[in-house]
Queue: 3 jobs
Job 1
Amino acid sequence: MRFIRWSTALGYAFLGLFLVLPLVFIFWQVLAGIGEVYTSITDPFYINPSPDAFANAFFIRPTDPPTVVIRGPDLGVVLNSLWVALTVAAVDVALGFVLAYVLAKYVFPGRTLLGLLATIPLIVMPFATAYVVRKILDPRWGTLNWILHDVLNLPFKVEISGLAAVAIVQSLMYLPIAYLNIYAALTRVDPTLEEVANNLGADERKAVRDVVLPLSTPGLAAAFVLVFIFAIDDVAAPIIFQDDPAARKLLSYQVYSKFLDQLRGQISPTAAFLALILLTISVASFLAVRKYVGLRQYAMLIRQLRPKSYTPGPLGKVLIYALSFPLIATAAAPLIGALTLVFADRWTTTPLPEALSLQNAAARLAEVFQNPLFLRGVVNTMYYGVAATLIMVAVGIAIAVAAARSKGPAADALDALATMPIAIPGLVVAYAYFLTSLQFTTALRGASPDLADLLDPLRHPELYLIIGYSVRKLPFVVRSIYAGLQQIHPSMEEVALNLGDGYTGVLRRILIPLLKNNILSGALIGFVYVTSEVSLSITLGVLKGVGQDTAMPITAFMRERFESGLYGVQEAATLGLLLVAIQVAAITLTTRVLKTRYGFVL
Amino acid sequence: MTVVRLEKLRKVFDNKVVAVDDVDLVVNDGEIMAVLGPSGCGKTTLLRLVAGLEDPTSGRILFDDRDVTRLPTQERNTAVVPQTWALWPHMTVFDNVAYGLRLRRKKANLTEEEIRRRVREVLELVDLTGLEGRRPFQLSGGQQQRVALARALVVQPEVLLLDEPLANLDAKLRVELREEVRKIAKRLSITTIYVTHDQEEAMAVADRIAVMNAGRLQQMGRPEEIYHKPANFFVATFVGRSNVLRGRVVEAKGEAAAVDVGFPLAAQTPHRLAPGEEVDVVVRPEDIFIGGGGVKCVVEDVVFLGRYYQTTLRCSGKVLKAEGPRPPAQPGEEVAAEIARAWAFKP
């Protein structure tokens, strides 16, 4: 049908122009400077699989008391990124499985509370959570050594730094993503399948081993790959730990710092190559899991089944309380710590924040709202959020309709392409946009100086930020609408067409009213992810610098404040509190009003 | 007032699945044509082609003398009632029914009052007066079906297309509603194509039946013709209950043949048969009369099925099912069975 063809064309045009073309441009940059790329990449700084790499990975420093130093091996930028991300994914899937299993399969007092606590770390407070972990791990004044040495009187201290610290931060940050995906996979298994196994004589262990696990393995694999992609793309944790040179030896940090170098005029094909490696690893992992689990349930809001549950014995209960609650508490600690930064007078040389009071929080919030720059940041964030959401909804409806209502390779490819941005690092998108727009406007300047000015990324980065956000977060909107479309029988549209309506009429009178909850859920989740986005915000967002007409959103201000020192940290946390408020409102709305679950769910 | 004519109509999906294969069919003005066949035989695809919801791979669709083959569904003036009914849950009964009229408001110069009047009339026709303000989910299955029918009828389509419209209803309601559908279609004299897999429904509703299998039209005719004079083995066994016996032709002349199926049997046939040729013989249970002359059989079982008794007979080693108003004998007793009518088909 003509409308489907137009929808497909719109989807391809949008993604082709704003996703594929800029990425191809990176590839072209690499090819153009292949000689320099080869020279750089053979440097051990990038790949260093020698025994020396493990020299400082783990050792005991002869202090009084002795200090156990854990830094992790330094295998060079590329291999470091891989081992850190793989470790984070493995740890999170293991811990996430324990949590998800306990919550999905057992009935015990406190289950609701545990479930509620488990979703707390879903709230994103960029940089702040990583900063709190840095405070906890601080070798001199950190909470960890205070507990180990001063409270428990253990005869040693612990120093976790460099890549090991980054891995810990990321494990805590992404645990809820693993947990949610695995929980969804476990609850999706039809309970009657397990009951039949029980009925035939299988006890809980056997039924889970033979029925539940095989059926939920795709969910486990999806969780692993999703956490892996998020970890390898994360730049917030390396930035917070950048005082340690080892923490900078990650692909994401290198792409980020080379982006900043480019702003100073140092165009480097090596940066493009690193971006390409990051892109390749992420996309390859994504494609692997897509083939395995099928894309249909990707990143969508789900309605869950009530899984078959068991009542644990006394030993089981002890294990649940002894393992799950501390695990949840640990995962929630960074966010709780970050929030206390707003209420604390200070947190510098003490193991815990000092002098918490409501007055402190009120004074900081007042400061934020009185500071015209911060206000500008809040306005920017809302403006980008609303603009990107409108684009996402318009393009998302077109793509979802095209993918759900037509068959064939063109629809399948569009569906895959629309979900692909989940796997494409924000840094790579930022880098690609910057390079492409710079080259384009330079070429345009001769022919149309006014248009070139308008499209200049250094003068008007807002344009690229909004498009970049909408491309990156598009999958969440598409999947939400797509899921709704799957619930609507095509005959609903066909009857309207048959009675004489055109497709735009069908869209307006039939589909949009029927899909309004899905559109609203998708829009809300897209809006929240845009407002808390980091990679584009701290790269394209800073192109215009800090000033009255700055284009920086809240997250870019947060990074800038975290780097500026003592009170900057608390200002950043206060800005983070505003983001938290937006997220909590969205979560409440999606779960209570729209009756859907919130979060990344494969 | 429309005659629907399908000429060599063919639909192939993905270059490999032949859903409709060279179908020629004429539905006369005001006629109800049932398209009957098993699941997957292509009957729904045929209906969708007529509605313009699928494009044919080849062939033509004519409404009277107008070629509508490439006309979009909006411009065909057909009205579909899908199996799911597809009632829009966000609209009331009134809005569902008025939808098509509102789209025609400008073209047909309809006022809101005129729309209201016509919706009221059609709701009265399907016996739904008073339910205009309800949402579809507040109605029973039968009422929902009537709303779907009213929505199709209100636009006064040239051709009414019903795709298993009663499949989601319980057996008793199906019987009631099929009579009503026929009554309404006849009263309005709308050319109707009624797709179903239920042979009894097809016979009850239709003026003529088109039997389909594997995308091909097997036979078209009045219900009596389809039942009493099946064109091939598929139609004979798909429509009505039947016994199938493998046999050999002893003698053949025109449409008549003497066949040995273990015992001698006179059969009609649409084929030219030769003596010695192997054939499948179809015998309807109600055409076996027990107690007269004929072949000697032993009663194996007698079952009461409400309207009739079903008797299982063993005759010269062959098992036959017969039906009759009374139990003919007790199991184990020997009886004589006369086979009044049989058809022989080439295997």
Job 2
Amino acid sequence: MIWKVVQQIAKSGIRTEPAPDIGADAQAEASRIQAELLDILGQALTIREVDAGSCNGCELEINALGNPYYNLEGLGIRFVASPRHADMLLVTGPVSRNMETALKRTYEATPEPKLVVAVGDCACDGGLFGESYATCGRVANVIPVDVTVPGCPPPPLDILRGILTAVRRRVS
Amino acid sequence: MKIPGLDVEFAPLPAPVPVWYGTVSAQEWSAAAAAVRDEGGRLVAVWAGKAIEKEATSAGESRAEAIFSAYVTLDGLFWLVLPLTPQDGVAAYPDLSAVFPAASRMQRAAADLSNVHARGASDARPWLNHGAWADHSYPLLQPIQNLPKPDPQALIDYPFVRVEGDGVHEIAVGPVHAGIIEPGHFRFSVVGEKVLRLEQRLGYAHKGTEQRMTQFDPLQAHRLAGRVSGDSTVAYAWGYCMALESATQTEIPAAAKWLRALMLERERVANHLGDLGALGNDAAFAFALAQFSRLREDWLRGSKAAFGHRLMMDCVLPGGVKNDLTRDQADAMVQSCKTIEQEVRRLQEIFEAHAGLQDRLMTTGRVEPALASQLGLTGLAGRASSQAWDVRCDHPFTPYDKLEVRMATHHNGDVAARAQVRFDEVFESLRLIQRILCELPNGAFQTEVRLPAQACRGMGWVEGWRGEILVALELSDAGQDKRIVRCHLHDPSWQNWPVLQHAVMGNIVADFPLINKSFNLSYSGQDL
């Protein structure tokens, strides 16, 4: 049994590498992200993801950040289960009115530096759902936002860039 | 066409699947439910019809014209219409939840959105409205020219059912969850480690999708339909387009039908790969997550290369699909199917030989076939509990009639069975994709959709990866700008969420994430 597992791991090899469609730049960027994170924070970055009403498309791509290709944890970035452990909130969706209070409370529970990255078209400007009786529209209508990452949904590397931009911008 | 035991004639709607439409009286409304149950059929959806102006009142006030239900029997899908006549200002219809328990939440949602009430229903708590809009302002009854200002109230304190007894305590989870998942609230009543009862409160992702649909041009609304639940974007977009093409009596080119099926099967594989990895991970087998998420990433990149979008959003359009495949793309896809199949087979062997993993999966979160049938468990989870329904097999339309889909079923109804059905469906979809790529017809892949001058309606019915997606569409006539007056989008999660409450009973709290993931239901899809 364990032999098969080991065999499969060896066969798969290490897949963490730049996404093929953007070439060597990505590898360089990944290393730079890691170095900058350590310089800026002096520690790993912890993120609490909040779905404030998305269609779950953005969640699929945020989850993809954890796969061996992007290897988010290898960069020193980790998703945590509570806002109280988080440096950053990654928020998706147009903020539904039913989630407005929960999002505000999550923001309040997050310690400084309280970075906020709004992920996806809905989080950036309300997207196709817009503002209505049921949604407050973009995330910035409810809590302060540092960086927006457009896309429907944005591909994993764009989300990663957004995370780094927020860290960089807040410190400089 | 008739439902046996019910003396109502149903007329066919033009659609690739057998859909029958008929008007019933209040008495026949109840009789139909009993007749369908006796036939071994299922309830798919209950929703309220479009808003019409109220008779004999001040101008501007509206009410729902009718209440609709959709049933499936072996003959196909029956769309029942019960016109409503309000008495003392209340529009009511006979409750269906006594016959089909799955009706309960759909009825509560219809009450929140359209002010129609199920007479005799045992549960009348609000479902989608958590206080976001005023009680008397029903979102689906508002005229499009005069949308109401948002009127958020204080959040409603939801009356959960309390379990009392020695040592019973509650665990409240959500709406912000610990993982990267959608928002919802779970209230567990537990003794020690054992779950006595789970009650869900959903609706947190309610974004007014159905109201928003009426503001879209019918030829553009597939984009919003494709965002009802992002993981099922192809299924929803196809469901909407099928409904539109059914309403407008548009015949799409053969290549478009095959390419839609190709995308739907790709979507199924992508989701199953993700779920199998996550299932392993929730049983502390991180190896599975690393392996399957790697395969999923390869697969999504394949979709991007072929269709220009990793999840294939906006690739199914009214009248056809966005693009055709080149021969090279098709060849590359066949090759990737072969590679992935080999890898998944190897991983399946490891899953099956891993005693520790199987120990976590087997007998966990069990839904017996009898309970599944009673509660209406549907789709993939239903098939893992002997509910052998699959639109692709039951009513095969082009290209499924040529492909002869082999339905995957299991009778154990536990987490292991739901994992097994996923494995089987991955292999079957990989086979289908390769067949489709071999036999893909040449020629046009788009046609023009012309909106008719008269009011019309249509139905779309597609087997998404989670289960059947239903889209019921009503368009207005030329006098009212040929717009969408009502579009109901039904997700199989409506049926399956309540069954999850039963599946966790008697299990330990620590197994909940595993059981929940084995269903992997959509929040956004049911919250709308």
Job 3
Amino acid sequence: MDIRLSGIGHAYDDFEVLSGIDLDIPSGQIVCVVGPSGCGKSTLLRFIGGLEKPTQGKVLQLGHPPPGCLNPLTYIFQDFALLPWRTVAGNVSLVLEDHGIRGSEARATISDVLARTKLTDFAQALPKQLSGGMKQRVAIARALAVRPAVMLMDEPLSALDAQTRELLMDDLIDLWTRQPFTAVYVTHNLTEAVRLGHRVVILSRRPGQIREVIEIEKPLCDRGFGDPDLDAAQRQLWQLMRDEARAADAELIGV
Amino acid sequence: MSDPALPSDRPAPVAPPATPLAQPRAVKFRGGGFAPRSRRWVGVAVFVALILFAEWGTRTGWISALTLPKPSDVFDTFRELYASGLLFKHLGLSLSRLLVGAAIGVSLGISVGVLIGLFSYIRSGLVPLVAAIFPIPKIALLPLFVIWFGIGEGSKYALIAFGTFTPTVVATYGAVDNVDRTLIRMGQSFGLSWWSIVRKIVLPGAMPGILSGLRISLAIAIILLVAAEMLGAEYGIGAYILEAGSLYDLERLFAGVVILSTLGVVVSAIIGLIERAVLSWRT
């Protein structure tokens, strides 16, 4: 299933945050969206998942989600959004219960996704016992459980420390290599963007518009820490973004 | 190494003079405090000390028998009450009134509180109404309840239910307001039904606030229980206290008060247990 954004624009009252966004998200690819703070990249992601409505334009699904897909558009949030009163297994089970998946079928799915995210030993732990990186892996496991057609990742690694972020990037690459998934990955971290993105979309500052789309050819599984090709791509991104970021930083917010 | 640009009359920077106190000293500790913890037996010790003080005062005649009854006499009265079997008659009736009244009030209060927390129109319509009935002293409405629900148990249940209802509503909608919105968005993003979101996300998330509201509303329920039993009840702790009070029988009055205090402590302990069981997920 592909996603097409056509002419997306959004304004809060007279305050324009996004304008004229046209973008195709082909299946099996990770599309990273980067941009200066306040450019509306998280808002764009909420449009794609149907949590908010744009004032202009449409988000279109092209084709049907693959069979067995329970929740085609599935989020991974920056702050994990785990229910603190449910165990790791319970948090995964939450999203299966409403699809009528219970009992042995649910247990099989839960143990499968926990194994894929290396959480099998922590099935009965409560979120308060887990580190930030583990919490985000639970959120990834929960997302995998509903077999999404497109994963919508909203700065998933931004609340984590630098080392954990490296580990999780490796985990995500592993997951993708074993079974390619489609994802829109919003971040302000250029290292993450060049490491995980097949394409990197650069948004301008408010009102956010697509400034540039950069393809990174190198296969995901060959990318690693301190890769010179990626460093070059990251430099190129930064060249494109620096002035925008500076201007965005100097703006007054919440007019 | 003198800088030529530096004016010659300016003194060269020198290291601060070595202090005569050359001995190493430990850094003074100035942290700590501001984190009270519960010390288990201190509360009991305060009770015991107060009772012993009253006993000593009344025995030596320093406190006159008219001011305060002797704690040992109160204890004797209590024992007689227990031996006569009347204690459980009073207590049983009072507890059943408390349970029924509070159950009605709390369950209605939680339902209305959740509705206020979730729907704009209900919120706009009911919040002013709740604010209007909250400050009414419910005891003042007792005659009205007697007319509406009769002199029997009905009016007593109604009084307690009404009294627990308003604080529960206020605590509940405040707690629902404080449920993390990102968790609700998460539920929506996974396609959970409205009812599932309320049951699995909103209610458990609001539980801490609801339980702390319950502490207040149950204390109010005990107060109203006594008020309700002062009117047209033959048995019940309130009736017992009222009877003792009209006879100026201070021992019995105090025995009744002790029962009420104990009831308050027990209720609060039960809520503490529930909190520990239900809210163990909190850090």
